Amino acid sequence: MKQRKETPTDRGKRPVVLRYGKGAVPLPEGLFPRVEVLAAHPPQVPHSGEERIAQVLARPSGSLPLSRLVARGDRVAVAVSDVTRYSATEKVLPLLLRETDAAGVPRNRVTLFVARGTHRAMTESELRDAIGPEIDSGVRVEQSDPEENLAELGKTTRGTRVLVHRPVMEHDRIVLTGTISFHYFAGFGGGRKALVPGCAGKATAHQTHFRIFRTDGPGKHPLARAGVLAGNPVHEDIVDAVAMASPAFLVNTLLTPGKEIFDVVAGHWQKAHEEGCARYANHFRVGIAKRFPLVIASAGGFPKDINIIQAHKALDNAFQATEPGGVLVLLAECPDGFGSPNFFPWFRFQEPADLERELRENYQIYGQTAHAVLSKTRACKVVLVSTLPPEDVEAMGMIPAASFPDAIRAAKGALGELPVPLVLPDAGYVLPHPAG
């Protein structure tokens, strides 16, 4: 299905709505004489997402069905997404567990491991929302721990020490679930990331993420970016690590910005994921003829704007469409604040080069995110509409705005006028691809 750039005329002058937290903010009519809206052509959504899951599970890619890969006496570990990324887990699990049921595996021999990586642990309420009714079906539920009880599997070809939550490795079969989307330095989310960094130790997460930097000099590796797998050192290091655990099966959803399932991939943990990435990019990588002096973007609402660390992924996408020295307005509520106490202290460095030097000596994952934020705020003006304290927004190099109208006034003040903006209603999903 072809992608295209929409304008209000194309859309029948339907209002442009920007998701913000669990609500939405409309783009005021008459504010601009014209706007350009960058959106993927909506993928065709199947009549039933559950039916599509069942079809794919019956005919997986590069693999036998899960029911033929597990045996009655097996203990099965299923890695599931945490609160920071909606993956339609509650729709996948009933059909996935039907496969283990068919193999004769009792429910009490199936453990759902919340792949929280270095994120905070989920609350009981969040677990119930994410997992759905199957949480009460007799399966076990455990949250991965990046600090304790780790099994060492070896080292990758790049020298990364591979540590995985030991209880996961004590199971006979490992199944990966999640959702595929763009990732600003691993290329794509989903797939292998459910295990590393999802269920990995902190040291492993740090080392795989550190591959973002060049080894032949300062700066970021040119292939460690959104939409790229081949030659991406972060992706390749993670694949090396996950191969040591030899997952038995994978199920990944592909979601619309409205969180509807438009496709599903299942089968071999690497082959099926790569096929899903290609399908996702076919819909959500969108070409643009030029960069714009004013870009207005929504992170996509909850949970893509749950905190600034997650919202940065949308900022990274929207940045690809912003002229150097231009203005990027980002709407991201950030009800969970920064997302980690290890993020904000890095802004004691005010120049990306200084921050990079420190990271190369004393690496932390969220220091890398801070570096990515700072690099953008030094290349253009970022106006952030959020619930974060204004002084903290300023410390990150951004211009705080309490409301969308305030953000537009700030943009006009910075530019002297309001040019035709490019609007990304779903910047957490859509990756602009500038010509040239």
Could you provide a short overview of the structure?
With 436 residues, the protein is α/β, with parallel strands linked by helices.
Mind explaining what this structure looks like?
The protein has 436 residues and is an alpha/beta fold. It has two domains: 4-34 and 289-434, Alpha-Beta Complex (2-enoyl-CoA Hydratase, Chain A, domain 1); 49-281, 3-Layer(aba) Sandwich (Rossmann fold), CATH 3.40.50.11440. Helix content is 29%, strand content 24%. It has a seven-stranded mixed β-sheet with strand order 1-4-20-16-17-18-19, with helices on both faces. Helix 2 (89-102) links the parallel strand 5 and strand 6. The model is unreliable at 1-12 (pLDDT under 50).
Question: What is the CATH top level name of the largest domain?
Answer: Alpha Beta
Helix/strand class: alpha/beta
Strand content: 15-25%
Largest beta sheet, briefly? 7 strands, mixed
CATH superfamily of the largest domain: LarA, N-terminal domain
Helix content: 25-40%
Q: In DSSP terms, counting alpha (H) and pi (I) runs of 4 or more, how many helices?
A: 12
Overall pLDDT score: 94
